């Protein structure tokens, strides 16, 4: 049986919503909904949290989630790269002889994800023999069609017009990344600078369960969809 470890990354600060990772979501800190799903997945040998926040550490301990280290501040800035946070955790796990065969990263901002989606993603990653797997959804907009940028003098210019797509159906099929989960080969993560440098497979899920809370609008929508699901 493979050693599969779940990593939940949650820094203290945030821009779109103050203290987003612990903001109230249906009477619980947002992060607790990720804890709840992770604890249901028996494939996980361990669940770890990477955070710089004392408050998140306390919430994790209350939920019986391990916090083996405190994330250094240089990896908890707004411009810190997510992959560097994963690398830091993997190096620590190697030191304490807990290095996994498979790393599953679950973001705090997808409270509507389903247990079945995580299990499907893990199994597909193993079947595909890829370096990493990302979850995706249908996009709200297609960058090949009707996307514009506005210049300093307020004039609009189409972003991609090389092929001159005049109908949405003509544009190439694209997807948006979601944050339901990431599944990866730890050795690949440690050696790469960009997750897309290797063989990256995908697991596609519905837009509703793939909602990613980034700002107050997303939070309001997620609460409405959560109530609908209940």
Summarize, please.
The chain has helices at residues 30-40, 54-62, 82-95, 115-128, 186-191, 216-229, and strands spanning 4-9, 24-25, 28-29, 44-50, 102-105, 132-137, 148-150, 156-158, 176-184, 200-204. It is α/β, with parallel strands linked by helices.
Strand line-up across the major sheet: 4-1-5-9-6-10
Question: What is the number of E strands?
Answer: 10
Biggest sheet features: 6 strands, mixed
Beta content: 15-25%
Element string (H = helix, E = strand): EEEHEHHEHEEEEHEH
**Tally of DSSP helical segments:** 6
What portion of residues is helical? 25-40%
Sheet/helix structural class: alpha/beta
Distance between the termini: 35 Å
Which of globular, elongated, flat, extended, rod-shaped describes the shape? globular
Mean pLDDT: 91
Rounded Rg: 19 Å
**Which segments are poorly predicted (pLDDT under 50) over 5 or more consecutive residues?**
none
């Amino acid at each position: 049986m493979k050693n599969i470890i779940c990593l939940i990354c949650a820094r203290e600060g945030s821009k779109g919503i103050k203290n987003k990772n612990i903001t109230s979501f249906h009477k619980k800190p947002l992060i607790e909904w990720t804890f709840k799903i992770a604890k249901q997945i028996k494939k996980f040998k361990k669940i770890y949290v990477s955070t710089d926040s004392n408050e998140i550490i306390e919430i994790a301990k209350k939920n019986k989630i391990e916090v083996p280290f405190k994330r250094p501040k240089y990896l908890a800035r707004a411009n810190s790269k997510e992959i560097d946070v994963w690398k830091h955790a993997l190096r620590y796990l190697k030191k304490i002889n807990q290095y996994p065969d498979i790393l599953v990263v679950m973001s705090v901002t997808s409270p509507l994800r389903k247990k079945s989606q995580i299990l499907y993603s893990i199994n597909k990653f193993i079947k595909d023999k890829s370096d990493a797997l990302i979850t995706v959804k249908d996009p709200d907009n297609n960058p090949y069609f009707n996307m514009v940028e506005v210049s300093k003098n307020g004039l609009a210019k189409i972003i991609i017009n090389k092929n001159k797509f005049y109908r949405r159906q003509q544009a190439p099929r694209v997807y948006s990344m979601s944050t339901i989960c990431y599944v990866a080969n730890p050795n690949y993560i440690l050696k790469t600078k960009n997750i897309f440098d290797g063989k990256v497979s995908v697991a596609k899920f519905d837009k509703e369960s793939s909602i990613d809370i980034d700002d107050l609008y997303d939070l309001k929508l997620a609460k409405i969809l959560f109530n609908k699901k209940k």
